[in-house]
């Protein structure tokens, strides 16, 4: 290899190290992307009056008379499902700085929502609502008593979590079938935006099968879009159809937008929750690489032989990728018979596979394509 080629490879590595957020595939360690989606419910120390002044006015058009949103059926739905929608309050340890920029740790409160879906006290919510929490408290509507919750399991990939409280005669919500949703049907969101308990907002199903990137290397697929107003604190609460069934778990909004909220389909939530209750975690295959997406701009700047793919920055020792012979500076361009153009493509295809399946990955190395057989393994718990 010439001196110029070696120097160019070193510069590519350095460039990607600075500009790309590297993700260890399959472990669920991901870095939060704040520029597009407002995804975590930050604590607020303001009064309700201050909040009303801060939140932009949203003139929601009232539906015409006879619309299901104005029917008595809507009132009945809220009365039936509302008692099962809980407020989740967490204490999270965060690094803060004083006036002199001295660093110290402080516990700060944060709030979110959840929905009881089993009489034993199992509650569905978002992973980002409880992640990093030292203590989780649950409050039922109209009940002053708080319940301390235990984490049954959580999954960063789907942003879902199951927690559990001990109680008697707990109200529950019915989980519906999100595969039967149609664009235009009524959508009801119940949650605790900005601490305002059991707030009800109404809209429609705006779109189906959306794909939103919530973090580098991680995206939510088949997501429900709704214009029912969703704000900080709604995360983890239910999206309900006109039959009073939970069809989604509200999870994200587009920062600065109005009427653009997203919910995880309840069919996904049902599958994930069942596995979390049974195993305490989601068992997926892992590859064991740090890397980033190659774009045409990067390829032109550094004269890379391909314009799209995944650049391998580092391979974890003993991982499936290491055992298959994948090395740093390889370019991954294929997974079985599917072209890989981004890290998201690679992640999506990987998670479709059985944790112990053998697959073929196509790489580009030293001017030629090579196919490597990879024996997948279940992702480690750590």
Order of SSEs: HEHHEEEHEEEEEEEEEEHEEHEHEEHEEE
Count of runs of 4 or more consecutive helical residues: 8
Number of strands: 22
Question: What ranges have pLDDT less than 50 throughout 5 or more consecutive residues?
Answer: 17-70
> Which shape, going by the Cα principal axes?
globular
Helix content: 10-25%
Rg, Å, rounded: 23 Å
Widest sheet, order of strands: 6-5-2-3-4-8-7
The structural class is alpha+beta
Proportion of residues in β-strands: 35-45%
Residue-averaged pLDDT? 81
- Measure the end-to-end span: 39 Å
Q: Tell me about the biggest sheet?
A: 7 strands, antiparallel
Topology record:
Elements lengths: L2 H17 L17 E2 L9 H7 L17 H10 L3 E13 L5 E16 L3 E4 L1 H4 L2 E7 L6 E3 L1 E6 L4 E5 L21 E6 L7 E17 L2 E9 L11 E3 L5 E9 L6 E5 H14 L5 E2 L2 E6 L1 H6 L7 E7 L4 H5 L6 E5 L2 E2 L3 H8 L7 E8 L2 E8 L1 E2 L4
Antiparallel strand pairs: 1-13, 2-3, 2-5, 3-4, 4-8, 5-6, 7-8, 9-10, 9-12, 10-11, 11-14, 12-13, 13-14, 15-22, 16-17, 17-18, 18-19, 18-20, 20-21
Question: Can you offer a commentary on this structure?
Answer:
The protein is of the alpha+beta class and 382 residues long. The protein has eight helices and 22 strands. A hairpin with a 2-residue loop joins strand 10 and strand 11. The radius of gyration is 23 Å and the shape is globular. The chain starts with a helix and ends with a strand. 39% of the residues are buried. The model is unreliable at 17-70 (pLDDT under 50).
